[in-house]
Amino acid sequence: MDPHRHLDDELSSLRDRVLLLGGEAEQALERAMYALTERDSEVARDVLDHDDRVDHLEVEIDRQCIDIIALRQPAARDLRFVISVAKMAPVLERIADHACNIARAALDLNNEPELKSVLGLGRMADHALKMLRSALDAFTSGDAIVAREIIKSDTEINDLYNHTFHRLIELMVTEPATATRDARLLFVAKHLERIGDYVTDICELTVYMAEAAFIKHSN
Amino acid sequence: MPVQVEAPRIQTRDQRPASASGTEVRDKTKVAVKDLNFFYGRTQALHNISLEIPERIVMAFIGPSGCGKSTFLRTLNRMNDVIPATRVAGQVLIDDRDIYAPGTDVVELRRRVGMVFQKSNPFPKSIFENVAYGLRINRVTSSSSELAGRVEEALKDAALWNEVKDRLKTSALSLSGGQQQRLCIARALAIRPEVLLMDEPASALDPIATSKIEELIFDLKKQYTIVIVTHNMQQAARVSDTTAFFLLGKLIEVNTTEKMFTAPNEKLTEDYITGRFG
Fold first, then answer.
1. Which terminal CB of chain B, N or C, has fewer other CB atoms within 10 Å?
2. Does domain B29-273 have CATH number 3.90.1150.10?
3. pLDDT above 90 (res B23)
4. ipTM of the complex
5. Whole-prediction pTM
6. Which of B129, B177, B136, B173 is nearest to B155 (CA)?
7. Do A76 and B263 touch (CB under 8 A)?
């Protein structure tokens, strides 16, 4: 009998749960952007309703990490995995929170005339989603090389944000009548930019998990 | 294949300057082991061990049963000499002097390198006499007041004084298991050793007594170089600055304890630390 089977089972269950949370965050973002670009308020409300499940999952993961540390006293790679998950869960929950904020913006904007500038946010959202999916894949496979590549790609989302920011400011100046709606889109852009930062955090945790290297704040 | 470690230099977790001026860094090597091999008859128990133990740190030896960690510990004060048909090759240098060199005074060596065993072994004498015993046979003290002072000092160093100061003449066998073990530590400390070897000193104790021993070890390292063998990896993590992992008589890895328990260099170490060994 493998005396370590119980810990392996618990680590495996923890991995499943954090990936489930990652999937929820990913879906929340995808659906919030759909609600915004397709002007579908029903979907936006669904994203908001679903947030309780995300919060619940985060708490479950917190508890499971504490239980494993207290009862199993993991060390070395097991410890790094549990610590990474414990730090990753709130990051994923915050990504889902940003998705909820985008859904709220969609609910407001969907009651107003359509803005063409909404479409400009699509590229940002696509990139944020791609980063998030790749980051979760890299975490699953413990691939620090891919995680580092994803971190580098955050500059792309930052560039898109700067471009979108200036474009929306221009629109506010040239078409003051749409300024309130443009301001809402500015917030959406900021949410997407922050999601890029959070994905970077996830990748830094993957590098720590795989290589025991602290790369946070290392520029 | 296990990786042979070439007498690594250890950066301890608190390498503070030893002097107020901050110029002297506390990393002097107290014990240096070079290419040590040890045999029980024809059976080789230790293979080419090389290791340096800096002064005034706690180094833990970990590894599965039969890996040679206790055998290695006992080579550091020649306790294996008392076992028939054993043979040692290589060098163990304490302060740069080989303890296996011809002419070494083994009694003097064991005064400098004290030992505490797994099972507490107080003499069937009073608490006072247990601690005074080593001082008397070594003729360390010249007066009864000096003797009493040294006994008190040792009992204080072993964090036992407050519990026994009013009953020094009662039998040591009346003490609890944890107190008996601390008494044995006091007995070892009384003759002011430079190195203290501990072979699973808390394995027979309850959590509270274990905690007291661990706190004691933490305090003692300010004055002594301590080497502890333990099966309890969490204990190694709690009390030691550096940890050495042994397997099948070989030293697989020696590293700072933080590194050992979060990101060991060797896969064999990682497998053992995470319980996936074997």
1. N
2. no
3. no
4. 0.78
5. 0.82
6. B129
7. yes
